What we know:
The protein is mostly helical. The protein is 37% helix and 0% strand.
Amino acid sequence: MALMWNRTVDWDAGDWRRVAACRSTEPDLFFPVGTTGPAIEQIEAAKRVCRSCEAQEPCLDFALATNQESGVWGGTSEEERRKLRKAWLAARRSAGTSTSPVEPVRPATFER
Ligand code: SF4
């Protein structure tokens, strides 16, 4: 999967949490402990759910903009998002756009 992210965040764009595929899954699936051993299969299982999710794009936008460091969001692992966020921050700085952090929140799985 090629990782790219060059969209701007529209905070009012739709209510993506309502169509989140992870709403009907076990929340712990999206928050594996560690990144090795059994966590590898757990991350892949969470990503499979994300690939079927209508909200994948806005979810990833949200996770990057709000610096969600833990868990699987928008079909990406923690490490993948760290790389994407570096690119996002660099793009924002070069565009002269604010990079101020936004308070992290719980993912859709916890907002039932
Ligand atoms: S983490 Fe995001 S993309 Fe994955 S299922 Fe939940 S809402 Fe969809």
